[in-house]
Amino acid sequence: MTIAKPNKPQSAPPQPKGMPPQVQILQMMNAYRLTQNISVAAQLGIADLLAERPRSVVELAQETKSDPQSLYRLLRTLASFDIFAEIEAQKFRLTPRAALLKTDAPGSLRGYATVMGAQWHWQMWKDILHSVKTGESAFEAVYGMSFEDYYEQHPEDAKNFDAAMKGALTLSDRSILDSYDFSGFKQVVDLATGGQGDGELLATILQQNPGVTGIYFDTSARLENAKGTVEDKSVGERCELAGGDFFESVSAGGDAYIVKNLIHDYDDEKVGLILSNLRQAIADNGKLLIVEMIVPPGNEPSLAKILDVEAMIMTPGAIERTAEEYGQLLSQAGFETTRIIPTKSPMSIIEAIPV
């Protein structure tokens, strides 16, 4: 097995030499305030309003029905992190970072920023101590139900969450396409997440590889999302939409199976069941591609480590794993890990073959 070191996530700007530890940790502790600033700018749609031209705070305040002085103080703070730029007194323009908050930006993070500041998301984090002391979900302690139940009962929050995940995962889709060659396969099966999938990745693979067919496997209720995607990319004749439950069985016969952003949602027992079903379905010469963040060893900073805590407080059994832990799970299900491919996103591609 070849394990390539995953790319490090973007880190904070370098600190001046000799900055006291007290100042460094104070900056870290104040990071949540920056999150809320970004979220408010996303909710107000500031980036969309600046898409065509720079605008004054007065104009932006009128468009968003905000207090001009308060809005200026928020944008001035964001501009100090290169999120918007003040080009003259109280007049702002987009920056590359701010442009990612536009609704129609490729890989838009407006939805993600909105969710990060949403009340329901904020509330679960305030009870993190409960998770650390008990090992139980802080989300369930706060809301008295699982996230899945909350998702079903709060359609507006569910819609925003789906938009957030779609935007965040667009980067990983592009990085998968840049990092892996699908041209040698006959049939690619995309095992969708049941929550954020829309068939974009598989449809693009088919569009780029005319000799390949595909199966998009998702819950029956969510297949409609993918239908429009495969039709828009003119690959409908080569893409089957299959409804089912991956805990029971998976569409058989594919020589490539993509499982993206899914395995981390479940404990080892449930992951074993999913992988066993994949082992039964995959062709003898097939390859399984698990796309996940990988927790690096030691003290190396990593987005995976931060989101592992989010998984801990949000969903019982959810966990980000190390390369070794993925290898063990795959081996137990009858797969051999052949290589791990880092990408230009926080995700890596874990390639495995049936044995």
Short description:
The chain is α/β, with parallel strands linked by helices and 355 residues long. Helices cover 46% and strands 15% of the residues. It has 17 helices and 11 strands.
Strand order of the largest sheet: 1-10-11-9-8-5-6-7
If classified by CATH, what would the architecture of the largest domain be? 3-Layer(aba) Sandwich
Range of helix content: 40-55%
Query: What integer value in Å does the Rg equal?
Result: 22 Å
Largest sheet: 8 strands, mixed
Terminal CA distance: 14 Å
Question: How is this structure best described in words?
Answer:
By secondary structure, this protein is α/β, with parallel strands linked by helices. The chain has two domains: 21-100, Orthogonal Bundle (Arc Repressor Mutant, subunit A), CATH 1.10.10.10; 180-354, Rossmann fold (3-Layer(aba) Sandwich). Helix content is 46%, strand content 15%. It has helices at 21-29, 31-44, 46-49, 57-64, 68-79, 96-99, 110-116, 119-125, 128-134, 138-143, 147-153, 155-179, 200-208, 223-232, 268-281, 303-314, 323-332; strands spanning 2-3, 55-56, 85-88, 91-93, 187-191, 213-218, 239-243, 256-260, 287-292, 335-342, 348-354. The strands form two sheets. The chain has an eight-stranded mixed sheet, sandwiched between helices. The two termini are 14 Å apart. Mean pLDDT is 91; it is low at 2-12.
